[in-house]
Design goal:
The complex is a heterodimer of chains A (347) and B (355). Chain A has 347 residues and is α/β, with parallel strands linked by helices. In chain A, 38% of the residues lie in helices and 22% in strands. The chains are: A alpha/beta (347), B alpha/beta (355). The interface between A and B is large, with 50 and 46 residues.
Chain lengths: 347, 355
């Protein structure tokens, strides 16, 4: 019991440390729990996640499918099924989204916090032009704005996301645009209300590699320009490396490692992160990619100890008996692993 | 209707064929596939695959890369006979096979395909054993033969034999793709066409399936056509690689030569778009250059070189003449005017721009 309290204190002190200058934090999430409740039992998809994203900063959350990363994003924006239990704090400028009225929360959505989904075709309405959808979004966020002003704002947004001849593109239907152009329109809609936080769920997975390279860079630059915090969920470590300042690794509903993008991706301290990196086929690679053995655990039956122990090559007896502690491995870099050590002190 | 199989060469592939491992198992000659479509209400022709010639060597892997709409999946379907080609010829084991109509079952059996989405490729109401055994049943094999073969291939793909009675929904994505591979292997094909076969899988599972494919190829001398948009995976698994753009092959060569020394400006663009895994090596904060990243429509592709609208080295000739296939280095073919005769001077410029 004492270890859990210690962990919590440390997590809280870390987030407090990050958000010491109150104005800097765009989003602060504390001990988020998402539990899908069904007749045949409850599934805890997110199991106590805490993090802070500063304005202008990018946190990438990486992990395999089923790790809970999308459920986490959906909980933050508030689009889970009504039967979902959500606990913890989601603080936006000190205000807790989970304690707001439905009306206030709906108002915040899109204006203060917005989301970009994987598939731009489902995010856009196929029967309306880009203009209609964009202008509608702008009017929702700027009450009393005239049609002409909304339209010129829409053109400005399309210019910001580098859509060529934006005036002509306004008249287009989503089906008339390429995948990359559609995702730019979606990004334009996401920044229309000048949100403090943008959430993105696999924003470039559906795109071709040459388009992805441009959209990722564009996304990073725009998010800085509008000074919003960005939380991006991806299974693609390359996207995380190209986009993020910080990287968190999620496994079985929890962050198991968190640090700067460079720390996590080049000097991982959790065996799961190491496994994810080793499984990637890199440019010029001759040796066989090393797969992580086994599959992620069922969230209905999590092991008593470390959730990764059954797949971990380094696991020792203690890993199976008690939950793994959080260990600092460097400044602003921690790992939920019994065997992780501080590189500075151990060497 | 021409006879489906005609021997085009006096020399038949014999028992000594194994002494020539580089002999092509499959050869495509000027394969084209066009679709009749409607473009703004008018009839139009979409040229999905345009005069593609490729060789796939026995026991080797030919990788095909390119962005969506480049025709790589259409080409895969033409190879296995799911689409009839509009024109062109195909040689399989030095015999000409039907490309524009139905093929005899004997040929169909020897070329199998594995699709991207492991779930939709399986009948949800059929058990794993039924799905894998289905092609054998079609062939008229006895129950005993089917059971033995199913047990063999399910073990070959690394699944427990007890899974035969399971339904697809009881399996994970990676396991389902193993079932699809097992079904493709049930008839002991010589050629397996893998169309984005590992793209929908998590990286850790993808690594398992890639290793499985390598083992199966070694154990059964399989020949693969591996189609993917993942450039690193294609480099790793392929012996030879062809790069497609708007229905045409713009560059082909050994995986090593093509990735180490890409010649075509499109290949260079593709390879430079691969994200790095190290933020320090990323150019993410450099301004994004102008230039149109849009792929033109295959309904009215650009004249001459189809890549010219996006090419940083575009010249006058590019819009007028279709670039010929030039052997830029031994076994390394590129279709680009920069490498045509009289344009050698540009070689240095392109190489410099690529580095």
């Amino acid at each position: 019991m004492s270890t859990t309290t210690g962990v919590r204190e440390r997590v809280e002190s870390m987030s407090r440390g990050d958000s010491s200058s109150e104005t800097m934090a765009s989003l602060e999430v504390r001990d988020l729990i998402t539990e899908f409740r069904g007749r045949r039992g409850h599934v805890r998809a997110v199991n106590g996640v805490s993090f802070t994203v500063p304005r202008g900063g990018v946190l990438a959350v990486i992990g395999e499918s089923g790790s809970g990363k999308s459920a986490m994003l959906r909980s933050i924006i508030g689009i889970n099924p009504p039967s979902t239990l959500i606990e913890g704090n989601i603080l936006l400028q000190g205000k807790d989204l989970l304690k707001m009225s439905q009306r206030d929360r709906r108002r915040a959505r899109g204006r203060d916090i917005s989301m970009v989904f994987q598939d731009p075709l489902t995010a856009l309405d196929p029967v309306y032009t880009v203009e209609r959808q964009l202008v509608e979004t702008i009017k929702k966020h700027h009450e009393g704005i005239s049609n002409a002003d909304a339209r010129s704002r829409a053109i400005g947004l399309l210019e910001l996301v580098q859509i060529p001849s934006p005036g002509a593109r306004l008249k287009a239907y989503p089906s008339e645009l390429s995948g990359g152009m559609r995702q730019r329109v979606v990004i334009a809609m996401a920044i229309a209300g000048r949100p403090q936080v943008i959430l993105a769920d696999e924003p470039t997975t559906a795109l071709d590699v040459t388009v992805q390279a441009r959209i990722v860079r564009l996304f990073r630059q725009i998010q800085r320009e509008v000074d919003a915090g960005l939380v991006v969920v991806t299974h693609d470590l390359g996207v995380a490396a190209e986009l993020a300042d910080e990287v968190a690794v999620m496994y079985a509903g929890r962050f198991v490692e968190h640090g700067s993008a460079t720390q996590v991706l080049t000097t991982p301290s959790h065996p799961y992160t190491e496994g994810l990196i080793e499984a990637n086929v890199r440019a010029g690679q001759d040796r066989r990619p090393r797969a992580i053995p086994g599959a992620p655990p069922s969230l209905k039956r999590l092991p008593a100890g470390c959730a990764f122990a059954p797949r971990c090559a380094y696991a020792i007896a203690d890993c199976w008996s008690a939950p793994a502690p959080i260990r600092d491995t460097a400044t602003h870099h921690w790992s939920r692993c019994l065997l992780a050590s501080n590189a500075a002190t151990s060497s | 209707m021409p006879e489906a199989i005609t021997s085009v060469q006096a020399e038949q592939p014999g028992e000594n064929g194994n002494s020539l491992p580089k002999r092509p198992l499959l050869e495509l000659i000027d394969i084209s596939k066009e679709f009749d479509v409607r473009d703004n209400g008018r009839r139009a022709t979409l040229s999905a695959v345009n005069e593609v010639s490729l060789k796939v060597r026995t026991g080797r892997t030919l990788g095909i890369v390119g962005e969506s709409g480049c025709g790589k999946s259409t080409l895969a379907r033409v190879i296995v006979g799911l689409h009839a080609a509009s024109s062109g010829e195909m040689l399989f084991e030095n015999r000409q096979i039907e490309t524009t109509g139905r093929r005899p079952r004997k040929i169909v059996e020897q070329m199998q395909m594995v699709f991207q989405d492991p779930s939709s490729a399986l009948n949800p109401r059929a058990t794993v054993g039924e799905s894998i055994g289905f092609p054998l049943r079609v062939q008229g094999a006895s129950k005993k033969e089917i059971d033995a073969r199913v047990k063999q291939v399910i073990t070959d793909v690394g699944l427990p034999a007890s899974y035969v009675g399971n339904y697809p929904h009881q399996l994970s994505g990676g396991q389902r793709q193993r079932v699809n591979i097992a079904r493709a292997l049930a008839l002991q094909p010589k050629l397996v066409v893998l169309d984005e076969a590992v793209s929908a899988l998590d990286k850790s599972i993808q690594a398992q399936v890639l290793n499985l494919l390598a083992d199966l190829q070694r154990d059964y001398q399989l020949t693969y056509v591996f189609i993917s948009h993942d450039l690193n995976v294609v480099e790793y698994i392929s012996d030879e690689v062809a790069v497609m753009y708007l229905g045409q092959v713009v560059e082909e060569g050994s995986a090593k030569a093509l990735y180490e020394n890409p010649r075509h400006p499109y290949t260079q663009l593709l390879l430079s778009s691969i994200p790095t895994l190290d933020p320090a090596q990323s150019n993410r904060d450099e301004p994004i250059g102008a230039g149109d990243s849009e792929i033109p429509s295959p309904i009215s592709p650009p004249s001459g070189c189809r890549f010219r609208t996006r090419c940083p080295f575009v010249m006058d000739i590019c819009s007028e003449v279709l670039p010929p296939r030039v052997e830029a280095a031994p076994e390394h073919i590129v279709a680009c005017h920069l490498y045509s005769e009289g344009a050698e001077r540009n070689d240095g410029a392109v190489a410099a721009a690529a580095s």
